[in-house]
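We examine the record.

___
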Amino acid sequence: MKQLIFSALMMIAFSVAAQAPAKEAPKPEPMKAASKPEASKAASATPRKGPRRWNEDARHCLEKPTNTEIIKCAEEYL
């Protein structure tokens, strides 16, 4: 009997909690610089020079001193 009453109270509590209004999520700020997406689209739209080298080894790029140099070197193999 106690279990029945407990489960009924829990069901009521869960239904009340589910109907409670949720807090509004903060709205994301609009992008301030509209040129950034266009610049990335223009960079990705450039045609590749030569055949793709995805099956070649690009581990030598890891010997570059900075992350940007590593990324530029490795992009040739994508």
